[in-house]
Amino acid sequence: MFRLKDGLHTLLLTGASGNAAALIGGVTLHSATNIGFEGKNEVARNISEEEKLRWKNMVMLIVDEISQVGGLTLAAVDSRLRQYRDDQHRPFGGIPTVMFFGDFFQFDPVLQTSLLLPTPRDRSGQRPESAARHLAAHKLFLQFTTVVILREQVRAAGCPRLRGFLRRLRNGEQTEQDFQRLSQRLYTPSCKSSFVDGLRAITPLNQDRWDLNMAAVIQWARAHGKHISIFVAKHDTESGKRLRVEELGDVLRHGDDSQLPTPGLFFYAQGMPVAVTRNQFVGLKVVNGAPFMAVDIFPDLAFGTIALTSDVTLHLGPPVAVLLHSDDSADLIPGLPNGTILVKSKTVAIPSQMRGKEGRWRGKPGFRWVTHRTGPLCTPAFAMTDQKSQGKQFSDVLVNLKGVHSSGTATRPSFMSLYVQLSRAQSWDGLHLFRKPASSDFIEPKNVLDKDMRDAILKLERQGEKTRRRFEQDHRHEPWFQEWDAMAESVQATEAADEEAVASL
């Protein structure tokens, strides 16, 4: 519609994360409004008249993955748009239409609290003004009174058993029979699925992810006859201090994570799947979490190599760059093969928390003297964390249903980790478990969404019912209404089919 009316400049598509923005061809909400990632405004700067005019012409703002937007972030966005549009009295500076999309059966926003809740979850570590800003954002969110709830389970549309299982789990109605059937999905060496032919793994722990990815690269490469290259990241230390062998081992074993976007050891084989670990080119969808295929790699000839076996080479330094296949860069980048994009190695600072330089942080083993790491901003993508799996779906997936204690030991999985992991599967036969779940993980007592969030979601659903009744009342005299009203509810037909399928099993 906007394109037909030559009005694309009046529509802004944004996402809560780089990956969400890339999937809809937009930009991140943070970059669009120039705010920090904890809801803080960036360094104050003068706003050009051109920028003000661009925002004043905006007719519609769309935000995808709203469940990943916390109260502090929404408050900062609202404040910034009022400033951009010279309108301090209306929400979002009076943009005529603001639309939110998302599923609240996902993890909470990082370091913030869901907009559904009136108070921050962790109030002890927050300043009073932060709690006030979150409450203001929550009240702003409640002003969105037109709510449309989509109930059809699209990801598992072709599998009644999985569809019914996920519906009961989502509603907190899982049964002993569900638990027994889930327990039978244990992955064994006799399973036909493997990393060689498309299996993907999900786990809450980064350490598990690193280990799985290294093993998967070797398995995949040897099955496809590809050479394996292992690149060692470059580490800078205070005053050139030489690390002890134990410290160096600890540092290299530490892969990429949310604080450090490049791995200590980068395992590579041509054609393997990789995921980008930091936003780089949002317009080309080279964003944090985005999947690609590795086309080629360029070793740095300044570093030596060691042939570990006939098909494995250890490179004593990071590569110069990794070449990725990208349909979005076709015919755009001169000098590169068509449909590829280059991701260069970068030098990143080691956060002070990792080095134990802040009193309340113990630091990571081996990192006390390390100041910088240099390596590629991507990682093998055979395995991923439950957080990064959100929004993805797989025909064959291996899930690790365990919780994570602050000490790193396994505990009961949170409901959200349980639901997010299990709902990545497209079919029951394509769902596999690392380990047999304990009844306490799932059914004794039932692992359900916490009461505050469940009540908030029910309130949102009631608002959706009000929206529908209002829509029906406003349009019942339209010529198309009777035909629309007679259409079968897909969710009702689906639930009936699910019950019939379960009864016949």
TrEMBL record:
Protein keywords:
ATP-binding, DNA damage, DNA recombination, DNA repair, Helicase, Hydrolase, Nucleotide-binding
Named from the GO MF annotations, one term is: ATP hydrolysis activity
Q: What is its EC number?
A: 5.6.2.3
Q: Which Gene3D superfamilies match?
A: P-loop containing nucleotide triphosphate hydrolases
Q: Cross-referenced InterPro entries, in alphabetical order?
A: DNA_helicase_pif1-like_DEAD, P-loop_NTPase, PIF1_helicase
Tell me where on the tree of life, at the top rank, the source sits.
Eukaryota
Q: Which reaction does it catalyse?
A: ATP + H2O = ADP + phosphate + H(+)
The DNA helicase Pif1-like DEAD-box helicase domain sits at 9-113
Q: Which cofactor does it need?
A: Mg(2+)
BP terms from Gene Ontology: DNA recombination; DNA repair; telomere maintenance
What family does this chain come from, according to its entry? Belongs to the helicase family.
**UniProt-recorded name of the protein:** ATP-dependent DNA helicase
- Species name for this entry? Chaetomium globosum (strain ATCC 6205 / CBS 148.51 / DSM 1962 / NBRC 6347 / NRRL 1970)
